[in-house]
Amino acid sequence: MQHLVPLDNLVAALSRLPGIGRRTAERMAMALVQDSKGLMRILANALLEADDEIASCERCGNVTLSAVNPCELCTRHRRDAHILCVVESPADIMKIEESGGFQGRYHALMGRLSPMHGTGAADLRVDQLLARIADEKITEVLIALGTDVESDATASYLKEILSTREVRVSRIAFGLPSGSAIEYSDAATLAKAISGRQKFD
Amino acid sequence: MQHLVPLDNLVAALSRLPGIGRRTAERMAMALVQDSKGLMRILANALLEADDEIASCERCGNVTLSAVNPCELCTRHRRDAHILCVVESPADIMKIEESGGFQGRYHALMGRLSPMHGTGAADLRVDQLLARIADEKITEVLIALGTDVESDATASYLKEILSTREVRVSRIAFGLPSGSAIEYSDAATLAKAISGRQKFD
């Protein structure tokens, strides 16, 4: 790259986006400075607008409009207010909402236990979870974390903490993904599907 | 995605970046709104700064600081002012500069002939090229375009137009990439390497 300071700064900022390496950031920056449709200003304004108007829900941690806090999912009356689905991040809330499979409230931990990245229990929104269980008379906590080692450790940690509370703790099922065949499933998935088998009636 | 207007706008703006699909834009937007290090504002400021301070060189079309126009490559005295390297875009100028293989001036066409995308000769900086050949007493035009069909058509078009001018027209060589083996080369590359063979002395 040619060394124009504003271009270098733009590449540096773009490189900080998730999944964007240096080369991709350079290509993006070049496309932006050559763009004739005002994309730089459109993107800058969208960023400033989002920065001003989007906040974290003080209750569940979901993204929400600054003016709507607690978020809509925390206050909608049609939803079951006594079951809490614990997820890692707001992105997970969106995926579960898209699935249409859950009608309760959410609680985002904002991370998972990760000794490698220095994330301990105190960095997660666990105290808030315990407070909500008491305040909101929660009867069931559904743990919706993935199957990797860190998510498993986080799930186990939550189960232990919650064992002293008057609350049912469940975890989403692991098994064959929808539309898949036994023949093409990997061993770990099949083993989980078998150990997690359910009564067929 | 949840429908928060500022979030939708951010996804829409990010989707317009080259190579960024809807899903990637959504992931980026979520990472941005959850980021705690002010990345949204840093990126917005970098975009506004670049928009203010970066311009297109009025002579060669390269990116340059608004305050340095014509660009540095057009005015540096150590460079050969009589050979013009014709490229598609400023990004190509950067790649050739990185290679260190060229010491003349550049001229970016800002595109290539593409009936499919509605780009004709009038959309390229061809008139400017002809004017420069006369004004700057250019003795050689080096066409540095790729090997795809559109680049080939553009190169042929330039050769024809330039055939009436008092200027030598050359084209970069096509052949085996550096460090490659005959065994692993594709047929088209090998054929070009053979037809473009050079005296070995």
UniProtKB/TrEMBL annotation, chains A, B:
<dbReference type="InterPro" id="IPR000093">
    <property type="entry name" value="DNA_Rcmb_RecR"/>
</dbReference>
<keyword id="KW-0227">DNA damage</keyword>
<protein>
    <recommendedName>
        <fullName>Recombination protein RecR</fullName>
    </recommendedName>
</protein>
<keyword id="KW-0863">Zinc-finger</keyword>
<keyword id="KW-0234">DNA repair</keyword>
<dbReference type="InterPro" id="IPR015967">
    <property type="entry name" value="Rcmb_RecR_Znf"/>
</dbReference>
<dbReference type="InterPro" id="IPR023627">
    <property type="entry name" value="Rcmb_RecR"/>
</dbReference>
<dbReference type="Pfam" id="PF21176">
    <property type="entry name" value="RecR_HhH"/>
</dbReference>
<dbReference type="InterPro" id="IPR006171">
    <property type="entry name" value="TOPRIM_dom"/>
</dbReference>
<dbReference type="Pfam" id="PF21175">
    <property type="entry name" value="RecR_C"/>
</dbReference>
<comment type="similarity">
    <text>Belongs to the RecR family.</text>
</comment>
<keyword id="KW-0862">Zinc</keyword>
<feature type="domain" description="Toprim">
    <location>
        <begin position="82"/>
        <end position="177"/>
    </location>
</feature>
<dbReference type="InterPro" id="IPR034137">
    <property type="entry name" value="TOPRIM_RecR"/>
</dbReference>
<dbReference type="Pfam" id="PF13662">
    <property type="entry name" value="Toprim_4"/>
</dbReference>
<keyword id="KW-0479">Metal-binding</keyword>
<comment type="function">
    <text>May play a role in DNA repair. It seems to be involved in an RecBC-independent recombinational process of DNA repair. It may act with RecF and RecO.</text>
</comment>
<keyword id="KW-0233">DNA recombination</keyword>
